[in-house]
Amino acid sequence: MPRLHFKGRALVENHHLTVPFHELRAVPEPGLSTTPSLHDNLVVHGDNLAALKALQPTLYRQVRCIYIDPPYNTGNENWVYNDNVNSPMMREWLGKTVDRDDLTRNTARHFSQDHDFILVYARDAERWTPNKLRRSEAAKSRYKNPDADPRGPWASSDLTARNYYSKGTYEVTSPSGKTFKPSIGNYFRVSPENFAELEKDGRIWWGAKGRSMPRLKRFLSEVQEGVVPQTLWPWRDVGHTQAAKKELVALADFERSEDVFDTVKPTTLIRRILEIATDEDSIVLDSFAGSGTTAHAVLAQNKQDGSRRRFVLIECEDYADSLTAERVRRAARGVPSSGDEGLREGLGGAFSYFELGGPMREESLLDAGNLPTYEALAGYIFFTATGEELRPAEMDRSRSLIGSTHSTDVFLVYEPDVERLKLLALDLAFAKALPPANGRKRVVFAPTKYLDECFLNRYEVEFCQLPFEIYRVVADS
């Protein structure tokens, strides 16, 4: 299989390993959910990569579709995203492999480009199959029933083709007595025997007067549900930039025309992607959320087909609340409008709004007010220990049990309070209070322990230090 190689690929692939986990802090007011949850539709404000890693304990292997339109490789060194093309590695690449003008070309020397590209990737291209698109009303209207066939509307298709077929050069006779055979270089698609069977079954159309070249009748009731997606998507089907801007302006407030995004995408385009790449309960991720088109499209598509898709948006810029989330609020609730551009009725739905908190590592805990909540740390602990998502409903704080797998129970001894945390440890009383192991693995995360290996083995407990030196930090504070 072909592989894409570029300078610094290994560094890029492994960079996420150097990014610490961050806490996600719910902000109740900016969202629409009355009880914010990471299992809602989400708008997250914060660094894109750090937010993605923070979401990993909740969304690991659950995202069905990712749509991103990242503003990278533009050559713009003043852009708000990290797009620094002045590093030595990038300078060499730009100078020897590509020309800088290949990334920001705005004028056409020969032909004007009137199309955009969407690159499609699948985790396993051999197994992934796109959903079929709904047959349009225009396509359905091509099916008629001029001969009152009891099988319903049908459309005719050519029975000949240019592909050589040894049995496809015979002659047929129409009901009117007129004979037909394929023209030079063409062949019937079926054998004489199959043609006779089709005619016997009333599937050959000879024209209204029975004097035309035979064609095959294909009944609407028998054709496959939907249409295989094509590579060319006309703007009449998926929208264009000007319509996208009107959509945005109808839902957002801008003081100046130049503040409106230049490359905003129409919701009809994203909805086409959703039709092809999602199921009724899929999670859709957009980690460069911008104006929130993806969320708007998810809400609109859900309303149309009655599905329960969820969106997860990440935006690092300060307009994450005032623009990204605000557009989603208005799309969900509806806004007063006049004309055809605005929404008179909301699409329904709700979302939770989260801010990216501090990193879960020692240096961020020197400030006692920056301790992560019990739930946030529990989610991170459970995921790193088991590779599975924490199910909050299964938590039992009275026993410090945060979750279980088919073979392991995971416990967390922790309080997000400096003074109380100083007193916590895995001690004999805690070990004795644990439920019987019954052959299951019991893992206890705690700031420290007062039991040696002999006692840990006796009580069938595996101790794990919290994933940062939290105990030493709070003990010295």
Model regions low in confidence, pLDDT < 50 over at least 5 residues: 468-477
The largest sheet, given as strand count, sense and whether it forms a barrel, is: 6 strands, mixed
How far from one another are the termini? 56 Å
Spatial strand arrangement across the major sheet: 1-13-2-12-11-3
Shape: elongated
Proportion of residues in extended strands? 5-15%
Query: What structural category arises from helix and sheet content?
Result: alpha/beta
Number of helices: 15
The counted number of beta strands is 17
Helical content band: 25-40%
Q: Taking all residues together, what is the mean pLDDT?
A: 84
Rg computed from alpha carbons, rounded to a whole number of angstroms: 31 Å
Describe the protein's topology:
Elements: H1 9-14, E1 22-26, E2 42-45, H2 48-59, E3 63-66, H3 88-96, H4 137-140, E4 154-158, E5 160-161, E6 172-173, E7 179-180, E8 187-188, H5 192-200, E9 204-205, E10 215-219, H6 235-238, H7 241-251, H8 267-277, E11 283-286, H9 293-305, E12 310-315, H10 319-333, E13 352-359, H11 374-386, E14 401-404, E15 408-412, H12 418-421, H13 428-433, E16 441-446, H14 453-458, E17 462-465, H15 470-475
Parallel strand pairs: 2-12, 2-13, 3-11, 11-12, 15-16, 16-17
Antiparallel strand pairs: 1-13, 4-10, 5-8, 6-7, 9-10, 14-15
Helix pairs in contact: 2-11, 8-9, 9-10
